[in-house]
Specification:
The chain is mostly helical and about 200 residues long. It is built from seven helices and no strands. The longest helix has about 60 residues.
Length: about 200
């Protein structure tokens, strides 16, 4: 009887150790799968955010008024446009994901082109905010010098808004097909180019 109990105890220990190994193996496998998808997305978001931070750090060397104006434009206007356009582009990822899963590959390009038209139209509606930044900020009680500088910077930021159209839609288009590495490479190149250009 004692030997049988001893054998059962050893078998139970073996089973528990093998189950803990299989749990560890599954966690490691899931973690690797997650990082294949999440890693490029993190690099892309880091690059997008990093470009504005790099610009802000260089503008800080010019003067406090310029830095305050740039921070206002980025925080209020560009982030506002970013949120609207990124939210709208997220619908494209859903549509492309469904088309890709259903093997209707011809619809991927159609959805991408339609999203360009819709986001371009939305960006046109956002333009007055960027064009009339100075009077809007003065109306809100901002100092005249900062409001005028912000108005100048916001005009230069219009190109950023239209760049979001291509950037966000292409990101969603590629993510729906699990081609995340392409996005990460492009994000890394754009960040490196931005830093290099600011150096000069």
């Amino acid at each position: 009887m004692g030997k049988e109990e001893e054998i059962k105890e050893k078998l139970l220990q073996k089973n528990s150790s093998s189950s803990s190994e299989s749990v560890r193996r599954r966690i490691w496998k899931e973690s690797k799968t997650l990082w294949v998808v999440a890693g490029p997305a993190i690099i892309t978001r880091f690059s997008t955010y990093g470009i504005t931070v790099v610009s802000q750090s260089f503008i800080g060397h010019i003067g406090s008024t310029e830095l305050a104006a740039y921070a206002l434009v980025i925080t209020l206007l560009v982030k506002f446009a970013n949120g609207i356009l990124l939210g709208m582009a997220s619908a494209l990822e859903t549509l492309c994901g469904q088309a890709y899963g259903a093997k209707k590959y011809e619809m991927l390009g159609i959805y991408l082109q339609r999203s360009w038209i819709i986001l371009f139209t939305t960006s046109l509606f956002l333009l007055p905010i960027f064009i009339f930044t100075t009077p809007l900020l003065e109306l809100l009680g901002q100092e005249k010098a900062i409001a005028e500088m912000a108005g100048s910077i916001s005009l230069w930021s219009i190109g950023v808004v239209f760049a979001f159209i291509v950037s966000f839609t292409c990101q969603m288009f590629l993510q729906a097909q699990s081609k995340n590495k392409i996005i990460a490479y492009l994000a890394a190149v754009s960040m490196s180019t931005h830093v290099f250009c600011h150096g000069f």
